[in-house]
Amino acid sequence: MQHQYLSYRNRVRLFKNQISSVQSQINSTKQQKASTQSEIQELDRQLASVQAEITQLNTKIQETTANLNKSQQELKEAIATREAHYNTLKKRIRVMYEYGNSGYLEALLSSDNFSDFITRLEYTNKLVEYDNKVLKDYTHSEEVIATNVKTIAKDKKQIEDMKAEQAKKQQILDNNIARKKSDCKTA
To answer: Over the chain, what HEC string results?
Structure first.
């Protein structure tokens, strides 16, 4: 009978060892689950952060694209304005060439009287002011064109850079989503 008793004791000890081993596995699994859940929460924070960065980049890309479109439109208008000023300037230069530099002086000196001289002087001053304004407008158009060309190049570069950054962020987002799916399967 003592033989059966020892066998019973061995069985109890064996069951206790098995229970202890299973309890240890349960505890280990709980720790792994908690660790995995913690990793998933961290991935969720990272996903939200990267998604916010992508959204912000999209907004910046849209704003920069709108600025680019505006600059391109301004460039077209400036080119048209420059052409108009250029044509006017060409006509004035042709007139000045045909009449020579002495044209203004001859017009003044051919006055019949002092009143006619003053009238011609005012007319000559207005022509000179007009010529200066046409030249100034033409120069301003050239400056606007140069500024818009620089702005367009800068905006295109910014859009290119932001799209590259957006692609990197999207790759990070995709990798984090894949990691999260993998972690969720193990949890």
So the answer is: CHHHHHHHHHHHHHHHHHHHHHHHHHHHHHHHHHHHHHHHHHHHHHHHHHHHHHHHHHHHHHHHHHHHHHHHHHHHHHHHHHHHHHHHHHHHHHHHHHHCCHHHHHHHHCCCCHHHHHHHHHHHHHHHHHHHHHHHHHHHHHHHHHHHHHHHHHHHHHHHHHHHHHHHHHHHHHHHHHHHHHHHHHC
